[in-house]
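Hi L.,

You mentioned the student needs an example of a multi-chain input paired with its predicted structure. This one should do, with 594 residues in total across all chains.
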Amino acid sequence: MNHWSQFFIPTLKESPADAEIASHKLLVRAGLVRKLGGGLYTHMPLGLRVIHKITQICREEINAGGGIELWMPHLHPVENWTEGPRWNLAREIMFRADSAGAGKRAPAEPEFVLGPTHEEIITPLAKTEITSYRDLPKNFYQISTKFRNEIRPRYGLMRAREFIMMDAYSFDADDAAATQNYLRMKAAYERFFTRLGVQFIAVEADTGVMGGNFSHEFMVPAEVGDNDVLYCDESGYAANREKAASALVPADLADAAPDGAVEEFATPGVTTIAQLEAAPHSVPAGSQFKTLIYIGDGKPFIVILRGNDELEEAKLGALGFNLFRPATPEEIVPVLGAKPGSLGAVRGTLGNPNPTALAGVFADHAIRLVGNGVTGANKDGFHLRHVNVARDLAITRFGDFRRVREGEPCPVCGKPLKLRRGIEVGHIFKLGTKYSERYNAVYTDAQKQSRPMVMGCYGIGVSRSMQAIIEQSHDADGIIWPWTVAPFQVLVCLLDPQNEEAKSVAQKLAAAAEQAGADVLIDDREERPGVKFKDADLIGIPLRVTIGGKGLKEGVVEMKWRAEKELAKVPVGVAESHLATLVRDAWEKAPRVK
RNA sequence: CGGGGUGUAGCUUAGCCUGGUAGAGCGCUACGUUCGGGACGUAGAGGCCGAGAGUUCGAAUCUCUCCACCCCGACCA
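Structure written out for the whole complex:
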């Protein structure tokens, strides 16, 4: 057991000026963290206890899911990255680590980077250490610090430059086995987040920089979350907006027949969808084609959307470019012969002067709903009408590129999709052989054939999860820790530490609670009761036992759950056994998955 | 990387527009009175006003540069 007077819990009455959201304010006010710089935090003693609770649960569940814990360096020889498949993408978020010596760095000194994740380390390790199918499957994980030079760190631990993460990497002999491993980890994640005591949803997600076949994100619903999740209560469908699909275009939709010959018309000064929608042209956005130009691996390509749809840029990842970005107006003019605002992809208006310059014309399925519409003429100040999707547009292929909106039909059951925001606390990817092929991480199978290992990778934001729990579980007075992750489960609030009788009762109760399996903190500070109660609510210990002169005169102590208003008066004689029962019940009721 | 905002005691901040060398609350120290929901009184300690340069007799205040932090955006033609 710990005594508050001997521990260190620097609570604050006021919120720090740089904290915006409730969980960030409470992290600081409750003395869980202190800021060093932007996105850099010291985990104070109380906060570290929560981190330890979370990592312990994480270990137990990842172990149960087949994980084997190891520990890799945070300082990576840069060669591991330059030889990998995503150096150009990942280097932007990486910190370079040089010797701090004054002028002592020799030109030939090895270069290091601080690890933002560890595929580039674990895959070469697997290559040298795993050579036979008999060694597979394997799933390695670590719980350690990650370094990422986030463009904009914010909200305390929510997006930090240095943070604590569980990262796991699975290696399998074939795709089917890798899927099994993936599903096993998905189940482990569900057990883990359930045990944390947070509400969460697993959603289909974009694979982003990781690459690979498919992935799920674990989201804690919260207004302050960075991610939009579209979900359906009917079918259980849930996906990150970057990935979400909808049944907006009916499967049996017949393509519209042309309604006349393509006709050019003058639109001086009109360069936006909205301007074309206004008088005198009065073309509804839903009857326009939006033509966007991107550069993919150095070559321009076109994306066509409905005028009233938005591009979901992450979906362009499906096109297979390593790197893509919006084209600049300077890049567009030489390719299409017109400035942005008059662009289109009608056959015959493209490819002037150089048709082979384009890497493709990719159309969103939803433009089929437009059927016949208006698009740019690739001639400044002119548009084309009666443009028919099937007849006139030079489409390489169709795909899903638009951003799905709330209320669109669920792709599974057709009911309207709902939208909510969430904090991403976990992400799992089935990687395939992207990394193993690059690093030549192969094994020999039973037929003596050399084959690349099939990988998966898995991450849990440990420090972010701590904050997500607070965001989801707090009130006006402070944090309300779930039983399983509370820094202490029982707070023995000794109102009069000078009173020998009260002190002795407190010791006995603390010992009983500890005996029953709780971590106990005794507030033995020389403070007024009001200060102690306020602090108790702020730091959010689930069960508070109050021992005060008033109660002792009646022969009772008080027991109160942080999450509830009611307060129970328990006779001193039975208090120890009652408290022990409460603790055992709390463990009994703690959320878990069999 | 672009836009906006803020930097004054450990924390929250006033003062800045209109220049005259800094004030409050919390916290801290000592003493006294209090003592079941952040008590009160008295007396204290604590600030090169983010850094540098400039203007001026004189700069927290005006000008310039830099730095840090916070917010918004990162793309849609």
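You could point out the following to them. The CA atoms of residues 424 and 579 of chain A lie 37 Å apart. Chain A has 16 helices and 32 strands.

Best wishes,
N.
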